[in-house]
Amino acid sequence: MRILVTGGAGYIGGAVAAVLAADGHDVEVLDDLSTGHADAVAADVPHHRLPLRRVEEVLDPTFGAVVHLAARSLVGESMEHPERYWHGNIVETLALIDAMRAAGVPRLVFSSTAAVYGDAGSEPLVEDTPTRPTNPYGASKLAIDHMLTAEARAHGLAAVSLRYFNVAGAHGHLGERHDPETHLIPNLLTAAQQHRSGDDYQPARIFGTDYPTRDGTAVRDYIHVSDLAEAHVLALEHARPGTHEILNLGTGTGTTVREVVEAVREVTETDLAAEEAPRRAGDPPVLVASGARAERLLGWVPRLGVRAMIADAWAARTAVGSESRPDA
Ligand code: UDP
C-alpha cells in the first residue's frame, strides 16, 4: 500500500515509517523539519518537506492511507501559547482530513495521547475512561478524535486513533532527539553520559517525591517505540470504512520514577546522582493504560520492557557519540 507518514522525520514517526517500509509498504514522508531531523528519513523514502497545511499538494488517489504524527507536542508550550496548538494540531489536521476526502484516500491512523484523559485516577485507563485533558495539547488531540469520529460517520473514513502512553527506547539508530529535552529517560541518559565522561554535571532530577504511590514518585506506563510502531501496521490492517476506533497503547504496567532511575544506573553501569525536586506542574501521579482493547482488536502485545527501552536508547546514543550529538 502507498502510505504517507506525516511527521515521519520525528522520533516516533521515523520508527513508524521504518516498520511500515520493512513490512513491504510504499512509504513517503511529509515533514517540514520544524522539529524533525532529515536523517531520520531513510535515503530511499521520498521526503516531502512541506507543512501539513500543504498536504493536498502531495495526496492523490494512489495513496491507500495516511499515518498522521505531525503535531506540536509540548505540554508546557501549550499552556503558554494555546493558539499554536489550535492552529498547529486542529486546523492543520482539518486540512489533512479535507485533502484526504478530496483525493479519496480511505484510511487514517492518528497519533493521539494519554494526555486526553488528564488526571484520571490510579486505575489502568480504558478507552471509555472520561476524557478531561488538563492542557491545550491534550485538548487539541481530543478535538481531533471528535473530528475523526464525525468524518468516519459522515464520509466513510476508516480511522484509528492510537493513544500513546510514555514512549521510550530507540528503534535501531533512531533515538529520541528533542530540543529542549524534557523526558525522563533521555534526561537520565544524558546525566549518565556526563557522569561517565568524568565532567562536572547537572544531576538528574526527580520531580515530586510526595505522590501517593509505592515510593512517592510518579508512576508511568513506558512503552518501547518499536512495539508502538508495530501497532500502527496492525491498526492500518484493521481500519474499517465508516468506523473510528480508539485504542490505548500501553503495557498495563506502571513504573515509578525512582525505579526508572535505578534501572538506568544498572543498564548504564553508572552511579548517577538524582536529586529530589518539587513536583512538576500539571503532572498526574499515575498514568497507566489498559492495553486490553488493542490486544483484542489488533492482536497487539507489547514485548519490550523498561530495561530494553533504556538499553536500546543508550546503545543508539553511544553509537553516535555523546559529545557530537548530546540530544541523540
Ligand atoms: N520526570 C522527572 N525528571 C525529569 C523528567 C521527568 O522526574 O527530568 C518525571 C515527570 O515529572 C513524570 C515522569 O518523570 O512524573 C515522566 O515524565 P516524562 O516527561 O518523561 O513524560 P510525561 O509523563 O510527562 O509525558
Lay out the secondary structure.
Elements lengths: L1 E5 L4 H12 L3 E5 L16 E2 L16 E4 L6 H6 L1 H22 L3 E7 L22 H20 L2 E7 L1 E3 L15 H14 L6 E4 L11 E2 L1 E3 H14 L5 E6 L5 E2 H12 L5 E4 L8 E2 L4 H7 L7 H15 L8
Parallel strand pairs: 1-2, 1-4, 2-3, 4-5, 5-6, 6-11, 7-10, 8-13, 9-14
Antiparallel strand pairs: 9-12
Helix pairs in contact: 1-6, 3-4, 5-7, 5-9, 7-9
The structure holds uridine-5'-diphosphate.
The parts where pLDDT drops under 50 for at least 5 residues are: 321-328
Number of strands: 14
Structural class: alpha/beta
- The gross shape turns out to be globular
Number of helices: 9
| SSE pattern | EHEEEHHEHEEHEEEHEEHEEHH
Account of the protein in words:
This protein is an alpha/beta fold and 328 residues long. The chain is 37% helix and 17% strand. The protein has nine helices and 14 strands. The strands form four sheets. The protein has a seven-stranded parallel beta sheet, with helices on both faces. A three-stranded mixed beta sheet has the order 12-9-14. Strand 5, helix 4 and strand 6 (158-164) form a beta-alpha-beta unit. The longest helix has 22 residues, at 82-103. The radius of gyration is 19 Å and the shape is globular. The chain starts with a strand and ends in an 8-residue tail after the last helix. Bound molecules: uridine-5'-diphosphate. The site of uridine-5'-diphosphate (UDP) has 14 residues, from helix 5 and strand 8.
